Please model this.
Amino acid sequence: MNNKDKGLDDLFKKKLEDPVDQIGYKEEDWTALEKMLDQQKKRKGIIFWLPYIASVAALLLLFLGWWNFRPQVNRDNHHNKFQASNQPVKSNTGTNGGAIRQPVNPKQTQTPANAVNYAANTGVSAGRRNGKTGKSLSAAGSRRDTTGLQKNDLLNTPQMEALTATSHSQVTGPSSVGALPVSSIDIPQPAIRTTAIKTDMHLNKPKEAYRPQYAISVLAAPDINGVGSFQQGKVGTNFGLLFSAGLFKKISLSTGVLYSVKPYTESFQDYHTKYQFPVTPVNVTADCRMLDIPLNLGYELYNKHQSKITVGTGLSSYIMLHESYKFNYTDSYSYTTGPANYNVPGVNKYFFGVLNLNATYQRQLNSNVGISLQPYLKLPLTNLGYSQVRLQTTGVAIGVTWNFNSLAKH
Amino acid sequence: MGEEDLHQLIRGCIKQDRKCQKMLYKAFYGFSMGICLRYTGNRDEASEVMNQGFFKVFTHIDSYDISRPFKAWLGKIMMNVSIDFYRANLKMAYTEDLDKAENISDGDLVDKNLHYNDLLVMVQKLPQAYRTVFNLFAIEGYSHEEISSMLNINIGTSKSNLHKARQKLKRMIIEADSRVNSGNYNRGIDNNNSIVAINAINMNGVFINKGIRG
Model:
C-alpha cells in the first residue's frame, strides 16, 4: 500500500469512524425496533405454551383413541357376569312367584305347586338326572334336605336364594321330580334366554351414545366478501376438506383446510399503506387467494329422522398465498401517473384472526354418507392482508359428509 | 454517559425493561447508525440493519461480559449484521471499466475540504462488494486475510475490490472538487456500469456470524 492510498483511507477513517454528532435520532426507527421486540416476545410466548398445548392435544388424542378402540370384549363380559349373578334370581322370583318367600317359610315347600316350580329352577340337567337316577338322587336329596333347610332358616339373604332353591328342589325328592313330564322341566330355559338377550340389548344402548363420531366432509362454498359491509361485495369461492370429531354427545370439534378465492372492492380510505400515491384512486379491487384453516366447536340442537341441526363457532387462520391490488382512478389521465396495481410478495399468515359463526343442516342419506348445507358468517377480529382491512365474508357451504364410525362397525 | 450509568442501563436491558432499552438505543444510536450507514446504500437500509443489530443486542445482552467495553461489543455486532446484510444482498455485483480510474492522479486528497456527509455519500455510492471490503480494510482495520474469511472470498478478490473501491472514491473526490469549483451540480449518471456475476469463489459457504463477540 502506498502513502497515497493510506492518505485516502485515513481521510475516510477519520471522518466516518465515529460520526455521532452528524446523525440525528429518529423516533420511527425505535418504533420499528419496538415492534420487532414485541413480536419476538409474542413468539416466545407461543413457544413457551407450545409444549403444554401439544401435551394436551396428545392426551386428548390418546383418550379419544382409547375411547374408540378400547377392547369391547371385556366390557361385555363384565355385564354378562353381572347378569349371570343377578338375573336367575330375578327370573326365579318372576316365573315362580314366591321363591323368595320360600326361605322365610320353608313349610310351603310341601305344596305340590311349589315343588314343580323348584324342580324347574334347578335347570334341565338336574331335572333329567333326577328322572334317570331317582334313587340315588332321592338319597342325596334327603341328605341335603336338612342342611338346605337349616341354611334357609338362618340365611335369608338374596345371595342365598339360588342355593336354597336348588336345595328345596331336592327336598321334594324323587316322587315329585320323577313324576314331572320332561316338557315342564324345560320351561325355564327360554325364559332365562330371553332375559339374557333383553339385558344385552339394554346394555348396548349407552355404548352407542358415548361412541365418538368421526367424519370427513368435502365442502364447496360460494360466498360474498366485503370490507365493513357487503354493499360492494364480490362473490368468491371456497372448497376444501373438514375433519370432525364428536367430543361429547352433542359437542363436536372440527378442523380442516379450505382454499379460498376472495375478491373484494374497498374504498381507498380503507386501503392502508405507507406508499404516497401521486393521484388518489377512487377504490381498490383486491384479489386474495388463501388457505383458511378453521377450528370450530359445534353444538347439536336437533337430531331426529336422519336430520341434524348444529350451530357452531370458532376461529379461522388465514394463510395468504396470493394478494394483489388493482387501483381504480376517476379518469384515464390518472392511470398514467398513479400505479395500476400491486402484488404483495411472499406468504403472509394471520393466526386466529377471524371469528366463524355457522349453522349446519345435515341429512343422512345412509349410515355412511350425508349431505349438508351450512350458512356461515366470518367476522374479522384483526386487520387482514397487506392493506390491513376488516374483511368479512358470508356464504353457504354445501358438503358431503362421510362417517368413519359406521365403517368401523361393519 | 458514565460507566455506572451505562451498567445500570445494561442491567435494566437484561431484565427486558423497555425504558432502559430505549435509553440505551438512543445513547448509541449515532454510533451504531454511523457504522451501518457506511455499509449500506442509504439511510433506510442502514436503519433496518441497525435495528437488526440492536435486536441482537437486546435478545443476547445477558451474554455480554460487563468487564469489557460495551461500545466495542456493540460496534462488532453492528459490523456483523452489516456483513449479514452484504451476504443477503450480494447476488450480483457491479464492476466497472476502471481504465479512467487507473489514470487518475492521486493528488493531495487530504487537503480537500470534504465533510462527513460528502464522504458518506461517496462510500454509499460504491457497489456493495467494494464498499464492504473498503469499510473492513480502511476503517475497521482488518487485513485481507481476515476479510477473505469474513466475507468468504479470495484474498485476491478482497485486494482487487479494495483497489477498485479506492479508484472510484478518488474519482468521486475529484468530481466533487470540480463540481464545487465549476458550480455544476449535475449529478451525472454513470453509464459504464455493467452487471456481471460476482467474482467471489464460493457464495454457498457461510461466514459464521457469531454476533456477540466481545
